[in-house]
Amino acid sequence: MADGRTQHLPGAAASLRHYLRGFVLSVLLTGAAFALVMTGALPRDPTILVIFALAAVQVLVHLVDFLHIDGSLEQRWNVYAALFALLVVGILVGGSVWILFNAQANMSHGMPMPPEAF
Amino acid sequence: MTIDLPEAHSVHAPQLPPASEHDTELTEKTVFGFWLYLMSDCVLFASLFAVYAVLGRNYAGGPTGRDIFDLSYVLAETAILLLSSVAYGFVTLAAHDDRRRTALRWLALTFALGLAFVAMEAYEFHHLVGEGAGPSRSAFLSAYFALVGTHGLHVASGLVWMAVMAVQLARDGLSATVHRRMALLGLFWHFLDIIWIVVFTEVYLTGVL
Asked: Which residue among B24, B97, B206 places its CB closest to the CB of A8?
């Protein structure tokens, strides 16, 4: 559209190619994660690592192909806001998990007598 | 609400008004403001993910993820939500090309898929509560219902928003205001699909391992 009513909207950079590429990649990444868990092809810990890596890639695919984050100059502030949110999320999730797992580990291993002794 | 200003503008110019400086600036500010809301919503979900990560293995002698999660059911839910997200992409494309009827049809499909997702989730919750695996059974189930339920509530409010947009699209056509609101709805809908990726990975896939 040339009259400029839509060129500043987030969907302005959208194209059929983006949505189809995003869809195909999502099917592959989601399918791989479910297949890995449902078949039990790998031991537990590597499986967890791989499915979280697949999820991270799929989040990026969605950001680029569905939300059209392309790092262009007009989106600078959106990207800054997203990076700040990522920092807060990292501190929140990483910090909670770190502190509470430490607390749990210290509580259960630091007891002077095992619970069975009671 | 300041968002309604452009419509007052268009009264003076009945044929598709070209974007004024005012329109463009308003759109940029509105989209950025909505983006900031989404980022704060991200932090809300991060808190719930952190709670689940901490409490998700405290079963209190009750059922574990392996006992209650059915991965093929979750895979169907995931596929439906992904298709719904892609269908909204076609709404955006149709709106961009000024094809109102096509946009409405894709919007109806997006809505139907979203409704199917919410229905499947409601059935799953109902089934779990009926089996005695409700939110009060264990810390794991409290965290599970809080996280997945919050996502489901977001999807349900997206459905309400879609119904409102369908009415506005049918009534007002693709005015600058309707365009802008539909773009925001698109951001919201795609954002919820991103949250779901983390939900099925952290809750369901890790839960059965």
From this structure: B24
Q: What is the distance between the alpha carbons of residues B64 and B84, in angstroms, rounded to a whole number?
A: 30
pLDDT tens-digit series, residues B67-86: 999 999 999 999 999 999 99
Considering just the CA atoms, what is the radius of gyration of chain B in Å? Answer: 20
The whole-angstrom separation of Cα B40 and Cα B48 is 13
- Is residue A64 located within the same domain as residue A84? no
Q: List, in sequence order, the alpha helices (H) in chain B.
A: 5-10, 21-55, 65-68, 71-96, 100-130, 139-172, 176-199, 206-208
Total-model pTM: 0.87
- The answer to whether B205 contacts A66, with C-beta atoms less than 8 Å apart, is no
Structural domain count of chain B: 1
Radius of gyration of chain A (CA): 22
Distance CA A5, CA B167 (A): 21
Residues A12 and A61 in one domain: yes
| Best of B197, B198, B199, B200 to mutate (most A CBs within 10 Å, chain A) | B197
Chain B residue with CA closest to A50: the answer is: B201
- In the stretch 58-87 of chain A, residues with CB closer than 8 A to chain B read 58-59, 62-63, 66-67, 74, 77-78, 81-82, 84-85
pLDDT in tens, B173-203: 999 999 999 999 999 999 999 999 999 999 9
Among A18, A21, A29, A66, which would you mutate to test the B interface (most chain B Cβ atoms within 10 Å of its Cβ)? A66
Q: Which domain holds residue B126?
A: 23-208
Range(s) of the domain holding residue A11: 1-70
B110 touches A at CB < 8 Å: no
